[in-house]
Design a protein that fits this description.
- The chain has a single domain, classed as Orthogonal Bundle (Farnesyl Diphosphate Synthase), CATH 1.10.600.
- By secondary structure, it is mainly α.
- Helix 3 runs antiparallel to helix 5 and helix 6 runs antiparallel to helix 7.
């Protein structure tokens, strides 16, 4: 049974919530720092929401046999069907308290299916579509959980842009790791323009891609004022995650192979400078 009743009404089962919190803190350390700044009344729901997206993403990334089945269960829920998986039941519970946009969740599932049937990205427009599906949608759902100040469509666009910016940041951070796994998420047209992303030879490519990501960050951050709650937390997440781009620049635009890492201390310094954490 997913739900248990207590004095506050329906609440997620303690074990599931504990798993959601631990998953966020273990595999999404930057996001976990920001979640601590969220209002208490939405914090646990955000942990659960992250668990849904992360679980599906991990199943797909690890090519596990049950990945397609779990994605299909969420797709069925999006289409108005019964909740038949843990992820769908969590979403169904969240939808009792928040306006969960099923269209955005369905688009996320489409992104998971594109990862299951991986094919190289051809153009920057295709890359934008991919980034929206696998990450922009997460921002859209998050905005609905946090609530918006009337301008819902504008808030959704901004939240989608912020998620896309973070996904583009992931792609740049993980270039060498992805190539080691036989994949590249860079647009083929951009690789043809700047050349293969070999260590020490990708400054032009990274400058181009960082500029695209920064533009999306600007759009996303500008829309944070449209959130009814949690604005400080989202600003902190954006500032800390964006620092990965600055670290790429400091390290010479991929002069050496490897995953770019920003220390926890550096993240907190960046957020503190903006008055986002004490």
């Amino acid at each position: 049974m997913l739900l248990a009743r207590d004095r506050a009404g329906l609440a997620p089962e303690r074990a599931l919530l504990a798993e959601a919190r631990q998953t966020t803190r273990t595999v999404a350390r930057t996001f976990a720092l920001a979640v601590r700044l969220l209002p208490r009344e939405v914090r646990d729901d955000v942990y659960l929401l992250y668990l849904v997206f992360r679980t599906l993403d991990d199943l797909v990334d690890d090519h596990l046999p049950r990945a397609e089945e779990r994605v299909a269960a969420v797709e069925a829920w999006c289409a108005g069907g019964r909740a038949t998986s843990t992820e769908a039941r969590i979403l169904d519970d969240l939808a009792r308290r928040h306006r969960v946009p099923r269209d955005a969740v369905a688009d996320f599932c489409a992104g998971m299916r594109s990862d299951l049937a991986f094919s190289p990205v051809g153009t920057e427009a295709e890359l934008d579509e991919y980034c929206y599906r696998v990450a922009g949608t997460v921002g859209v759902v998050m905005a609905e959980v946090l609530g918006t100040n009337g301008e819902r469509a504008a808030a959704r666009r901004a939240a989608g842009a912020l998620g896309m910016a973070m996904q583009r940041t992931n792609i740049l951070r993980d270039i060498d790791e992805d190539r080691g796994n036989g994949r590249t998420y860079l647009a083929a047209e951009t690789v043809r323009r700047f050349g293969p992303p070999e260590p020490g030879r990708r400054e032009g490519l990274l400058k181009d891609q960082i500029a695209r990501a920064d533009a999306l960050y600007d759009e996303g951050v500008d829309g944070i004022v449209l959130l009814r709650s949690g604005g400080r937390a989202i600003r902190a997440a954006a500032a800390m995650y964006r620092e990965i781009l600055r670290q790429i620049e400091r390290e010479g635009y991929g002069a050496h192979a490897g995953r770019v890492v920003v220390s926890r201390r550096r993240k907190l310094v960046v957020a503190a400078r903006r008055g986002l954490v004490a």
